[in-house]
Amino acid sequence: MSVWEKLRPYGMVSPALVIFALFFIYPIFYMIYLSFFDWNFVSPVKKYVGLQNFTDLLRDPQFLQVLANTTIYTILTVTLTLSISLAFALWLNRSGLFYGFVQGAIFSPHIISLVSISLLWSWLMDPEYGLLNWVIGLFGFGPLEWLSHPDTSLISLVIVAVWKGIGFNTLVFIAGLQSIPPSVYEAAALDRSRPWTTFRKLTLPMLSPTLFFLAVMSMIGSFQVFETIAIMTQGGPVNSTNTLVYYIYENGFRFFKIGYASAAGVVLLIIVGLLTVIYFKMLSKRVHYR
């Protein structure tokens, strides 16, 4: 084999590698570099401050609240989305025009722009003219301040995220369910296995690769939430819906504290990386690949 034949595969993938390095790898390292400087994004002078940005970050009560908000948002969003999606998948995993229509209806929010969805839900959750308050008013409940009260604002954003994410996860779960051999359920029926036992002992273990994939992707996506917060709450009220990515945006592009925002970005990178490793270490042992 000639040298050219050995290098040809690398040459064929090199454009993709260059793009990946230019738009993904380089920004990460440049962010880490900027986290050690005090820079206002306008001045050509960058003042080296070492670990001061990280020290200020960890001492900032607002940042600690942002971490708590992000953690709560992620736990609720991932748990509710996966649970509801799995329930829908178990129900819709059958043929028929009705079930096909419901699958399409559930999936439709996934293809709609998150900006459009945020504007729609902002109207639905309006305390005076919103449809949700009109609906709960029919049952005798008073109007709720969905987005304007600290006790309900974060939960309201979770509702929007779950509503948008259910469709995609449901279809992925259905694909995973359809990959399970029917002979497995036939054997369980012959053994007179109860539905809950069949689900717990057969369906869930054989669906574990799909569940593992969706759990990791949902966790990463939840930590990166931005559009709904920027449009619906801007981090308020009283910092109750501010999350890491929006906090980074605020400090970087509103207050022009680029070094401080970069330090927050490094913290986000570390958290997501550590959680992903923990997911793989803990959950991969329970994943059954065929």
Automatic annotation (TrEMBL):
Keywords: Cell membrane, Membrane, Transmembrane, Transmembrane helix, Transport. Residues 67-279 form the ABC transmembrane type-1 domain. It is found in: Cell membrane. InterPro entries: ABC_transporter_permease, MetI-like, MetI-like_sf. The chain crosses the membrane at residues 12-33, 72-92, 104-124, 154-177, 202-226, 258-280. Gene3D superfamilies: MetI-like. It is a multi-pass membrane protein. It holds the Pfam family BPD_transp_1. Belongs to the binding-protein-dependent transport system permease family. This is Carbohydrate ABC transporter permease. It comes from Paenibacillus terreus.
